[in-house]
Amino acid sequence: MTAPALTTLRRLPSALPMLIAAFMMGLATSFAAPFMPLFAVQSAHMSPLKLGLYLTVTAVCSITLSTLIGRWSDRLPSRRPAVLLSMGSAALGFVMLTTTTAYVPLLLIGGLLLGTGASSFPQLFAYARVQFGSAGAEAAQNGLTTLRSIFSLAWVAGPLLGSVLVGALGFRGLFFCAAAAYVGAALPVILSRGHSRAALTAASVSANLNETPAPISARQLQLIALSFVLYGTALAMGAVALPLFITQELGGNTGQVGLLVGLCALLEIPVMLSFVLRPPRFRTATLMVVAFGLLAAYSLLTLLGGHVGGAWLGLMLSAQIIRAVVIAIASCLGMAYFQELMPGRVGAATTLFANTSSAGNLVSGLLSGAWAQAFGYGSVFGLCAVLAAVACSLMVVSRRMGGGRRRAA
């Protein structure tokens, strides 16, 4: 597909409200996510192990509650209530974070409110898929890719703005702004014209019969899902360790953390948009192998940053190019890849893709906390490289079993 596809995007039903919602949700997550580990350590005085336990509890609750909300939304004529519930819970969770730094209340807030809020991403994209469905399968997929790019666009400025907010207003001001951004994401959903999924069913069935290959074996799907879990674990461990590695071991500051995260998000956008303008020349499974291999290389480069003295910032800035390519491939094509592997089961495929990320967060929580407490935050990136390499190997095995035949939708 070439540039005319961008014209098609403008004709998608409810395109503008969905774009606004994705951008505001991107702002909300980009405000808070890079600085949550700093809040936990600096304000709540969590040890690395306690931080790992907090992240693990939040991840367990995210998987459980997202699955329950996903099943509930599948029985509703519209996913809008599920989207609003998850966004409202996230907003309330960030407001509640401003009221306490005690460990047990933070566990409850993270598990129940932020855990429910974690379903806002897959629910918004599932809702948008239904909204876009009447325009056709290809246009709808391009619309979702564009939404993911807009989400990343918010991450360009969000971390830098978050560092400014932390410096000027503290973590309380940061969390209030994150809550306000979630409210801003919910408003376009409330005002959008809700489309019933019944209108999408006939077109989806037709597309699946005519264009979608037969589903792969359960064994292949398990290997692919496991590789994505390991990828998610490595990515999440690196995201948690990076701000603490920079501020506690390299002598950096929150502004440099925001710069690195924002630069990565900026670099993701052209890669993502290239998937809209032109289909990838390589099979999706091949691109996943490349992405997971590149994540191992990025982790090793970041680990090297602890051994180059004052040149660490330049090295890490360069490494963000690699990380941006990794995230763009895995997050943008990954959702479509799972939908392709499970034809006719878009909701289940989207939930499985989202849950691999949540499972990665679950494993990364305690693992990164225990590892950092024993060996330091820099050493976490060595472990990330190993996990990414294993994920890459599993994808190669799944391709040899036949999983590499399919292209992204």
Automatic annotation (TrEMBL):
Predominant place of localization: membrane
DNA-binding as UniProt keyword: no
Domain of life, per lineage: Bacteria
Compartments, as annotated in UniProt: Cell membrane
InterPro entries (alphabetical): MFS (IPR011701), MFS_dom (IPR020846), MFS_trans_sf (IPR036259)
SUPFAM superfamilies (alphabetical): MFS general substrate transporter
Name of the protein this chain belongs to: MFS transporter
